[in-house]
Specification:
two-stranded antiparallel ribbon; globular; 677 residues; mainly alpha; 24 helices
């Protein structure tokens, strides 16, 4: 069975899934189950079709449906096959994830199943559409179905986010339509993309069409300054829909820029300033996107801003490819476009996984605020491991997939800068610096996000009581996490395939090598790296580190209270559960009252020097407890005095009461009893 037959079958199955969700809308759970399972089957069929197309099974359809002037034309080539496979993986994971996650929307499960399947089908039609009319129809259907998914909760925030998305999406739609209609006018009135490819437009007309398409599709991709809808819409949509929007739908914007700039206008030739403009917007989007993400505490808004960042990284490769193509450096153009396509697929996988992980946290804790999480690694270990893989991948840490595509992007920028054009050199160097800054800030951002969410102690009752999500949700996360690992370690096998896809867009070439054996190669700079070797080295090093730690701690295991910088936890450093247990009425810092300690009666109030404000917090989180504390003398040489030396130079407390019997188990009390203090 050829790729187009499988693809059309997947569209039919998606329609059946949407229809089943509507027919069973009164039976909420049945509608959800039917929509998700049928959607998963459709995703498998479209994935197989996409992979066949990537491997060279190029097919098309040309027939009349409804309107004789606009033939229903579909083209499934290597480029569109790659995007079909990308969306299929996310759709499959999202469908399986929705078997449990859609339970968060009671009374709306049938509606969610209908719009989810229709959304996937519309994206597939946009990617394969080869006619202006049907392309625009499918594009509008994609925008409308995603809008209804964003506002499915029907609260103030979702409606506001959905309205902003609706407005920006349709501004972009108008620009895209203007670009296509301009090409139609100069192509003899034809709506067929094939006629656009055969028409040689003047440089001015081609530039106008490209600029209109760039900003139109850029609004869908979320480039700065057209990004405002992403942090508003993505957090409000269901998490599996957010994964599909961030990983799949915004890639339609990248697909559209490539289709217009390198495909439909191919007969007119690519101009250097097109590539420079794309690289500049890519550099700005990447740096500002990650900078905005750093200040977020809402985990889904943080991930939305990282979508802006990664779209910028992809545009760096696209721009470098256009600039190199304009300078007749076809090999470098292929390398840069391969880097962009690789990062497109990589971003879909790790961002999809991260959004599913964020949905799992929301499902278990009921909040998107990372400040109210904490300690979730012990309570949700599977989610924590999958989220960690996604965080390492998006931070471009080897041997995961994000490292490979960013490595190729660096190489393409360096090679483009060496082509002799001063403007290209300046912009390419600027873009490489922006990419380096982006990578550093991304690592910082996800160290914060992972540490705050999964490490430390729980900071809310919900986090303290969190449990691992159901098996279908864990499976969906694990699938995307595993793909991130495979795309990284298997890069020497995958990279040559993507080189062929890039070459099909830029037309045949010769002599470009992306891989040789187990190494990723760049024949122009001579740079090479091996992700399998990196993976093996990391496994060995981690094993040695764990073994060394195990040997070092044999027979030396100790239990102690967590260190809080010399302070006891208070209302500004909440640790769940609260309230904290009472402490020893003396100097004892035990978490419970000492059995041998007598409670002191009313007596002289405790006094301390102004130079030792650390003492009340060091002894107890309750300052009122010190109203009846005995006064003792502590010398400067005592361990307690040395402990507080950072906060005070002296600590002088006079002992005036004998109504307290000091315990014999804790060190501070023991020191006083023995006269050592």
């Amino acid at each position: 069975m050829d790729s187009m037959t499988l693809f059309i079958a997947s569209l039919a199955v998606s329609c059946i899934g949407a229809l089943a969700s509507v027919l069973l809308i009164k039976a909420d759970n049945a509608a959800k189950t039917a929509g998700c399972l049928i959607g998963a089957v459709a995703a498998v069929l479209s994935f197989v079709a996409g992979i066949q197309a990537v491997l060279g099974d190029v097919t098309s359809v040309d027939t009349i449906v409804f309107f004789p002037f606009a033939h229903f034309q579909l083209l499934l080539n290597q480029l569109s096959g790659l995007f079909v496979a990308l969306i299929s993986v996310l759709a499959f994971a999202g469908s399986i994830y929705g078997l449990n996650y859609f339970d968060e929307y009671p009374g709306k499960k049938g509606r969610a199943g209908f719009f989810f399947n229709t959304f996937v089908a519309s994206m597939m039609l946009v990617i394969t559409g080869d006619n202006v009319f049907w392309f625009l129809v499918a594009f509008e259907l994609m925008s409308l179905t995603s809008y209804f998914l964003v506002v499915i909760e029907e609260n103030e925030n979702s409606i506001h986010g959905g309205w902003l998305y609706f407005v920006i999406a349709h501004v972009g739609f108008v620009l895209i339509m203007a670009s296509f209609l301009t090409m139609t006018n100069f192509a003899g009135g034809s709506f067929a993309f094939a006629d656009f490819r055969a028409t040689q437009f003047s440089p001015a007309v081609a530039s106008v069409c490209f600029v209109l398409a760039f900003f139109g599709f850029g609004a869908k991709a979320g480039i700065i300054p057209l990004h405002g809808w992403l942090p508003k819409a993505h957090p409000e949509a269901p998490s599996n829909v957010s994964a599909l929007m961030s990983g799949g739908m915004i890639k339609i914007g990248i697909f559209g820029i490539l289709k217009v700039g390198l495909d439909l206008l191919s007969a007119s030739g690519v101009q250097v300033w097109w590539g420079l403009m794309v690289m500049v917007f890519g550099a700005i989007s990447s740096v500002l996107g990650v900078a905005f993400a750093l200040q977020e505490h809402d985990i889904k808004r943080l991930l939305a801003y990282h979508s802006v960042e990664n779209i910028g990284i992809i545009l760096l490769g696209v721009g470098a490819s256009m600039a190199a193509m304009a300078l007749n450096s076809v090999g470098i153009a292929v390398l840069a476009l391969m880097a962009a396509l690789y990062h497109t697929f990589n971003h879909a996988m790790f961002k999809g996984e991260l959004f599913l992980g964020a949905g799992a946290l929301l499902y278990s804790t009921g909040t998107r605020n990372m400040e109210k999480m904490g300690g979730l690694f012990r309570r949700m270990p599977a989610t924590a491991i999958c989220f960690l893989i996604g965080a390492l991948a998006i931070s471009a840490i080897p041997p995961f997939n994000g490292f490979v595509s960013e490595w190729f992007t660096y190489q393409s920028l360096f090679n483009a800068a060496m082509q002799g054009d001063k403007a290209v050199m300046i912009v390419a160097v600027f873009a490489a610096v922006a990419l380096a800054i982006t990578g550093a800030l991304a690592v910082t951002c996800f160290v914060k996000a992972y540490g705050v969410s999964f490490a430390s102690a729980p900071r809310s009752e919900a986090a303290s009581n969190a449990k691992e999500v159901p098996a279908p949700m864990v499976f969906a996360q694990g699938l995307l996490a595993a793909i991130c690992v495979v795309l990284g370690i298997g890069a020497p096998v995958i990279a040559p395939v993507l080189v062929d896809v890039a070459a099909s867009v830029l037309h045949p070439y010769g002599g470009v090598f992306a891989a040789e054996g187990m190494e990723l190669m760049n024949q122009y700079s001579g740079a090479a790296t091996s992700t399998p070797a990196i993976a093996i080295a990391l496994v060995v090093l981690v094993g040695l580190a764990c073994g060394y730690r195990k040997l070092k701690t044999v027979g030396k295991v100790q239990k102690s209270q967590p260190w809080a910088c010399g302070y006891a936890p208070n209302e500004h450093m909440p640790v769940w559960p609260r309230p904290l247990p009472p402490r020893c009425p003396g100097l004892c810092s035990r978490s419970t009252r000492c059995a041998t300690a007598a409670r002191p009666s009313a007596g002289p109030s405790r006094t301390s020097s102004r130079s030792s404000p650390v003492w009340p917090r060091l002894w107890s989180p309750y300052p009122t407890r010190f109203s009846s504390m005995p006064r003792i003398r502590v010398s400067r040489s005592s361990p307690i005095s040395r402990l507080s030396s950072r906060a005070a130079t002296t600590a002088s407390i006079s002992a005036t009461s004998s109504r307290h019997s000091w315990c014999s188990s804790c060190s501070p009390c023991k020191w006083v009893k023995e006269g050592r203090a």
